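Tokens for Serine aminopeptidase S33 domain-containing protein. Go.
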Amino acid sequence: MGTLIHNYHLSPSNFVSPTINCYSSDFRLKQALLVHQVSHWNRCKRSETKMATAVAATGANSTHPEQNQGIRQQKIVLRNNHGEKLVGILHDTGSREIVILCHGFQSTKETSTMINLASALEKEGITAFRFDFAGNGESEGKFQYGNYCREADDLHSAIQHFSEAKRVTSAILGHSKGGNVVLLYASKYHDIHCVINVSGRYKTEGGVEERLGKGYLEKVKKDGFIDVKAKTGEVLYRVTEESLMDRLNTNMHEACLQIDKDCRVLTIHGSNDSIVRVEEALEFAKIIPNHKLHIIKGANHGFSKHQNELISVVLSFIRECSHHGQDNAK
């Protein structure tokens, strides 16, 4: 069972980190070449059962025999504002409204959490779109260590794509780094009023030393990069000084203060998350004005044993947002 802290507010935190400008359209960091992306995330198992001929025709990478036969899965390719192709899967129920799902660090649209959430939204009759950020999965571009604000811009490109198709993005959801991305999006674009942050980081410097080792700042300034390696010695990815500073200078405190009061934000976090500590979820609750916090007891970072509860909380919040929007329209 989870612990729901409804509209949880505390006095603002004194934590302030160096600022990176995520809000200007002139914000463009020139990232150096990064190599050898290898995903550490487990892919969800593919079902041998064919779902529908439309799925096979569009090249969808995962199928679920329990999905409604009326659902069409389509591979969608769109371009971001850097000209890179972004690849996603549209779970089209025919609804005008659409929920966009954003994956985390070194992850893809094919993780079990992304697929399970899309499937659950289907059953509610809600169209869902899960896609790969640039440099991840099937999308074009080079993998970057930081890239928080640029991924928020990728999300904007996806929202614009569906807007041009006369569809309305009713909610955005991000897991882990994707949670940061949806919050940064809300702080910059102010056009989505239902935002779900699942296990996002409040302090973006967190976890860096664990990945890069002690003295990482001195090392990257001396050598210009740090190669993150597997136990076998294989290079997993390269972190340049510029991409590292992109991450360290992304200020979630400042960004969250820019989120509109009429934007409803839900933060979901696992109490046993060893990657992003649950205390960081409390920090979001302190400063986001229209915020709800739900802590799932016993859940880890990936909610590997708590997918059903995660889905239940997400669907409940999306319904709540929808009802609130309908009441405001009256």
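The two ends are 35 Å apart (CA to CA).
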